[in-house]
Design brief:
The protein is of the alpha+beta class. The chain is built from 14 helices and 14 strands. The protein is 58% helix and 16% strand.
Length: 415
């Protein structure tokens, strides 16, 4: 029998049993939809984060205490390591040690809340320099002025607050010049950030409180070390030389002879991008693998229905064989039915996946107040359809072979 006749017969059969056909492909539809959705969200998230890292510039370098994180032990070592101190900042600022270094600032995160006359709010409190906020994110106060380098040197108790912090603590009242309480110390509000929302994946400027890092270190945290040091090179081309100079300077200060004993690690923008790409790639693969389980379930469902179809059409198989149909013709017929079911399920899944991915991008862009882009990978679409077709062949092969081996005499006797 020619394939076109088998195809016509299969389509008639599927139209006759629409409800059963739909339920048969449901697992495939869910599986393909999940794969498209996960891959789209994963690639969109990766694109967003990478763009943010790139916006910092290729000359941005981050120094962290402890060894480079390669396992749980390294993570603990980094969190509680006190290797980066003021003497390191002074040594790195020395042009004789690191001639390509343009700017440097420490960074400290302060846990806790802020309060004002009985009102309390829990923001992100960062001990930093105001200059870096302006240079990295191009953010300037909507009201007031940033604290100065002199304020940092004198350990001034001054703060710049976000719009949400101001709203929750002061309402419509003026906040400039007022004093907010962080832990047991009062800070004068010298500036207010304009309402901008999420300026990066990790920073909502409206829920932010910025204070001098020296004040945070001495009065709020009570430590003599830094959690991070941020560095800018003169230009992107000088980063490799600067990194080597930083390593040599810190090793000399910390009396380290073997690089394996480094009590610090340095991350460049390029390395950040590679790490982020690796992490998001692994997560996407893992989540896609989980979603792919539903494809296997869908394949088993198709095999089950095809076996039922073989049983239902036993008499028809006997009749076709009796009038000259070969076993090969019977097998092709059932394989075509299985492949059509999975391909249709795949196409529906791709359509739903693209639609849901688009809706998800709109929701995430609104919720995160970020430029969340809608990304669809054509390889993922081809992968989904290819997997669907493969499942149709793999899970349809056994029922098709079983049908092709039926004896025409026994089949015609079947009731």
């Amino acid at each position: 029998m020619k394939i076109k006749y088998s195809l016509k017969t299969v389509l008639i059969g599927l139209k006759t049993n629409k409800a059963r056909s739909f339920l048969t492909i449901l697992g495939i539809v869910i599986g393909i939809t999940s794969i498209i959705l996960i891959m789209s969200i994963g690639q969109s998230a990766e694109s967003l984060i990478l763009n943010e890292v790139k916006s910092l510039g290729g000359n941005f370098v981050q120094i962290n205490p402890g060894k480079e994180v390669k396992g749980p032990q390294d993570m603990a070592d980094t969190l509680f390591n006190d290797s980066l101190k003021e003497r390191d900042i002074k040594a790195l600022k020395n042009k004789n040690n690191v001639p390509d270094l343009e700017e440097i600032t420490p960074s400290l995160m302060v846990p806790g809340s802020v309060s004002y006359k009985g009102e309390t709010y829990k923001p992100t409190i960062l001990g930093w320099t105001a200059d870096w906020m302006a240079k990295l994110y191009n953010i300037y106060p909507g009201e007031g002025e940033y604290f100065t380098e002199e304020d940092i040197k004198s350990l001034a108790a001054v703060a710049v607050i976000g719009a949400k912090v101001k709203e929750d603590l002061f309402g419509t009242a003026d906040a400039l010049g007022e004093k907010i309480k962080i832990k047991d110390k009062y800070f004068k509000v010298v500036a207010i950030f304009p309402a901008k929302g999420q300026v990066s994946s990790f920073m909502d400027i409206d829920k932010f409180v910025l204070i001098p890092y020296t004040t945070a270190q001495k009065y709020l945290l009570g430590i003599d070390y830094y959690q991070e040091i941020h560095v800018m090179a003169k230009n992107e081309e000088s980063v490799p030389n600067m990194v080597e100079d930083i390593k040599l300077t810190l090793r000399d200060l910390h009396n380290i002879d073997d690089p394996e004993d480094d009590d610090f690690h340095i991350t460049t923008s390029e390395e950040m991008i590679e790490t982020i790409s690796l992490i998001t790639g692994i997560l996407t693969v893992l989540l896609t693998s989980v979603a792919a389980i539903s494809l296997v379930v869908g394949g088993v469902g198709i095999m089950n229905i095809m076996l039922v179809a073989v049983t239902e059409k036993t008499w028809e198989i006997g009749l076709r064989k009796a009038i000259g149909a070969r076993g090969k013709d019977i097998m092709v017929h059932f394989l075509i039915e299985s492949i059509i079911l999975t391909i249709v399920g795949g196409l529906i899944g791709v359509g739903l996946g693209i639609g849901l991915s688009y809706l998800a991008s709109l929701v995430l862009a609104k919720q995160l107040s970020q430029n969340w882009q809608f990304v669809i990978s054509f390889p993922s679409i081809l992968l989904g359809l290819g997997v669907a077709g493969s499942i149709g062949i793999i899970f349809g092969l056994y029922p098709a072979k079983k049908a092709s081996k039926k004896s025409p005499i026994e089949a015609l006797r079947y009731e």
